[in-house]
Amino acid sequence: MPELPEVETTTRGLRKEVVGLKIKDVWTDLNTKDKRQHDAVANPKYFTIFKKEVLDKKIISVERQAKNILINLTGNKTILIHLKMTGHLLYGKYKYILKENKWIPDETGPLQDPYNRFIHFVFTLSDKKFLAFSDARKFGKITLLDTKTAHDSRHLKDLGPDPLAKDFNLEKFKERLSKKQNGKIKTVLVDQSVLSGIGNIYSDEILWYAGIHPERKVQDIKENEFKKMFQATKETLTKGINFGGDSMSDYRNIYGLPGKFQLHHEAYRRTGEKCRRKGCKGVIMRKVINNRSAHFCSIHQI
What we know:
It is a single chain. 23% of the residues lie in helices and 23% in strands. With 302 residues, the chain is α+β, with helices and mostly antiparallel strands. The chain folds into 2 domains: 4-152, N-terminal domain of MutM-like DNA repair proteins (Alpha-Beta Barrel), CATH 3.20.190.10; 170-297, Helicase, Ruva Protein, domain 3 (Orthogonal Bundle). The strands form 4 sheets. Strands 1-8-9-5 form a 4-stranded antiparallel sheet, with helices on one face. A hairpin with a 4-residue loop joins strand 6 and strand 7 (102-105). The longest helix is centred in the C-terminal third of the chain and has 20 residues, at 223-242. The mean pLDDT is 97.
């Protein structure tokens, strides 16, 4: 699942390309009867309402809230997009194949990457280009909110603070994690009600850098370890953004290009490989902790 760095990379790309453009048309082939999707575009009845509300609206800004992308429109409307497991947004030239009811790139280049072929939702934009949502597993969420109350909606109101927020300091970091004193640190780091945006990949990397075993309970973590973990959190997430996100799985940026953070993993999915920490003779191990895979060094993470 795309995490904070991947969603931030997408948000920055959208901010650069689509702000100021108008939405001229909307298409989807999603069609679900799942009641949990009653207020998402996958529901045909809701899609009709959604389309009517967004047509001819101008995109005035794009922001990120945790793993959610918020596209703010004129008329006090905000499109919320959650990429979920395999979703990513793509910007460029597309054409619709009527006989096959599908969209394909109308330009050569990275949009033709096989990972980008699962197009299930398309915005036609006023610059004659398109914003397409590729989602192999169709778990992604697209819905519409009132801009003034968007952050108080059920989609966003229970999220923890953003680890990269300017006012997020060591004291707040420790205070948030300490809400789950008996929790294992791996589990607490990926709890979106504690901190927002961290998932399996970056939690493994954070704990590797901080030298903390993923099964350590929060109540047993010492002051100097909180400091190491806080620093590792800031640096690892920033590093993820600088490398354009992690594309070990489906994620691609809005131009269809993979990120490069997967080339710099120290723990995540390196099971059986030697630890790369200087002077460490450990091996990267994998263990399932509360239904989450954790990758960690057998020696220096204690």
